[in-house]
């Protein structure tokens, strides 16, 4: 970590891009699943979705302490109001990155399906329960749509910084 918190650490950059790819992939695959007929292909893809979804949760738990030890201040000259919007979007991105896998796990387990990450079964947090299944399923579906909108705003923000404001924001998330 460099003094002053002007730059992201290499680990922060790596986990940002790794999780960006994983989460966009999960959103695409989840949407495909939603539109697939039951059958062996769907169950195979669903297993992959769950494995990668649990991996996203583990990465989230790695990312939060990294965020705490490597806070970064906004690039200079960005108006307070813009900073607040960007900060709110990032906060909601973090919240969604927690809610998505947790609701997914609860949805599966409350339906009586064990959850495994690439063959390694995770502990059962919850017994079969129809009501919880319904709430977790609704949460998973609604938050996924909110997350798509947040990511769109977040990407537009990055492009705005890079091409219109022409500042360091995108560059410092890519390289030193
Ligand atoms: C960051 C993590 C995750 C993201 C972004 C994500 C995204 C999605 C999306 C977009 C859908 C389609 C929802 C809809 O249109 O209603 C979906 C469905 C689903 N997800 Fe996830 N998911 C994640 C993690 C998980 C995890 C960890 C599990 C379970 C262990 C899981 C299990 C499911 C199941 C069972 C479905 C329903 C498929 C169906 O019945 O058609 N997801 N997910
Ligand atoms: C093409 C896609 C993406 C681009 C171009 C992008 C770009 C950026 C940039 C430039 C920053 C640094 C902002 C700053 O310095 O203030 C950033 C931070 C961040 N991004 Fe992304 N991002 C992308 C995808 C995603 C996705 C999919 C997620 C999560 C679902 C995400 C979550 C975050 C979070 C939480 C931060 C804040 C890091 C911190 O705590 O300081 N990003 N992104």
Features:
73% helix, two-stranded antiparallel sheet, 5 helices, binds protoporphyrin IX containing FE, 176 residues, Fumarate Reductase Cytochrome B subunit, 2 strands, mainly alpha
Topology:
Blueprint: H1 10-34, H2 40-69, H3 80-110, E1 116-117, E2 120-121, H4 130-165, H5 169-174
Antiparallel strand pairs: 1-2
The structure holds protoporphyrin IX containing FE (2 copies).
The site of one protoporphyrin IX containing FE has 19 residues, from helix 1, helix 3, helix 4 and helix 5.
Tell me the number of structural domains. 1
The CATH architecture term is Up-down Bundle
Low-pLDDT windows of residues = none
CATH topology type: Fumarate Reductase Cytochrome B subunit
Rg (C-alpha, Å): 18 Å
Level of helix content? over 70%
The hetero molecules present are: protoporphyrin IX containing FE
Please write the string of helix (H) and strand (E) elements: HHHEEHH
- The CATH class assignment is Mainly Alpha
């Amino acid at each position: 970590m460099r003094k002053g918190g002007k730059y992201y650490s290499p680990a922060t950059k790596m986990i940002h891009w790794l999780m960006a790819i994983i989460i966009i992939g999960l959103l695409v695959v989840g949407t495909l699943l939603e539109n697939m007929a039951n059958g062996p292909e769907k169950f195979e893809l669903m297993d992959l979705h769950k494995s990668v979804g649990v991996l996203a949760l583990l990465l989230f738990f790695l990312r939060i302490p990294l965020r705490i030890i490597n806070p970064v201040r906004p690039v200079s000259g960005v108006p307070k109001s813009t900073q607040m919007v960007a900060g709110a979007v990032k906060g909601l991105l973090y919240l969604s990155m927690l809610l998505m896998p947790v609701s997914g796990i609860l949805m599966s387990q409350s339906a009586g399906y064990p959850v495994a990450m690439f063959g390694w079964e995770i502990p059962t947090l919850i017994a079969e329960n129809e009501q919880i299944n319904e709430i977790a399923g609704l949460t998973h579906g609604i938050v996924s749509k909110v997350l798509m909108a947040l990511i769109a705003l977040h990407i537009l923000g990055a492009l705005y910084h890079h091409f219109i404001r022409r500042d360091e924001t995108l560059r410092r998330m890519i390289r030193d």
